Amino acid sequence: MAKTFRVPEIIVNEYGHGCCQGCGHGIVNRIIYEVITEMGMEDNCMAFHDLACGSNMLYAQKGNAFSGAHGRAIPTATGYKRMRPDMLVFSYAGDGATYSIGMQHTIHTALRDECMTAIVVNNTNFGMTGGQMSPASLLGQKTTSSPAGRTKELNGNPVDVCKIYATMDVAYVARGAVNNVPNVNKTKQYIKKAFEKQMAGEGFTFVEVIAACPTNWGMTPAQANARIADEVLAQFPMGEFVERSAK
After folding, report:
1. Which residue stretches of 43-160 are H helix?
2. What is d(CA 203, CA 172) in angstroms, rounded to the nearest whole number?
3. Which of helix, strand or coil describes residue 51?
4. Chain Cα centroid distance, residue 245
5. How far apart are CA 63 and CA 41, in angstroms?
6. Is the predicted pLDDT of residue 23 greater than 80, yes or no?
7. According to DSSP H, which parts of the chain are helical?
8. Is the dihedral of CA 136, 88, 86, 64 positive or negative?
9. Residue ranges of E strands in 12-72
């Protein structure tokens, strides 16, 4: 029997998503709310965004959400989760906001092993503000702030936060991608596990998702997804890096 695909009702509204064609954010939004619907948490979830590409989620779903300052999605979510431990709470932002403007929160939330989930969409640039270089931009990558390409000597190496988190005592760390159907399905499994471990009270959970940014990469959507397969996943491989047993 053929399986019928239905978009979860929580992300069906009259506004629609505001991302560019080929952007990975729309796919990530969909699978997050598919997981929330499957868990029966539509009325008991809270999403925290910041003022960047991630804020488009506000217009693409009908669940509870709050948009805070740029780079501060994680600490805002942390404060809410401390007050409402019964809620499924997650932050949602990009690599620029999370690894540059908000890096101190990214590190210290993990050090405290806060019982919330951080989801980071890594498209290797500051997508909303014009395609500037982010800490995750690849060596040689041309951006609006590195027109000749990123160099190790001038800009340092790309940051791999999953490697950093692998040295910390946290509940779960994984990296997925949304450039093809098998990777989308794996990423959905990672997000579901992260949410389940949060609701079990196991501690901090983190999922990075590699996604395309065709507009700022200067590519078609097909070319951008091919770049993920050929270049980005070589630098940032998919997988589960930390899975701590329940305390």
Report:
1. 73-83, 95-96, 103-111, 152-155
2. 8
3. coil
4. 23
5. 10
6. yes
7. 25-38, 73-83, 95-96, 103-111, 152-155, 161-165, 181-199, 214-217, 221-227, 233-235
8. positive
9. 45-49, 64-67
Q: Give the 3-state secondary structure of residue 65.
A: strand
Q: How many residues does the chain have?
A: 247
CA distance 131 to 202: 36
Taking every pair of Cα atoms in the chain, the longest distance, rounded to a whole number of angstroms, is 57
Place of tokens 């809620």: 87
pLDDT in tens, 158-190: 999 999 999 999 999 999 999 999 999 999 999
- Band the pLDDT of 68: cuts 50, 70, 90: confident
Residue 16 Cα to chain centre, angstroms? 20
Mean pLDDT across the chain, nearest whole number?
Answer: 91
Q: In sequence order, what are the residues at sequence separation of 6 or more whose Cβ sits closer than 8 angstroms to the Cβ of residue 183? A: 176, 177, 238
Q: Which two tokens stand for residue 100?
A: 């540059």
User: Which residue has 């997050």 as its token pair?
Assistant: 32
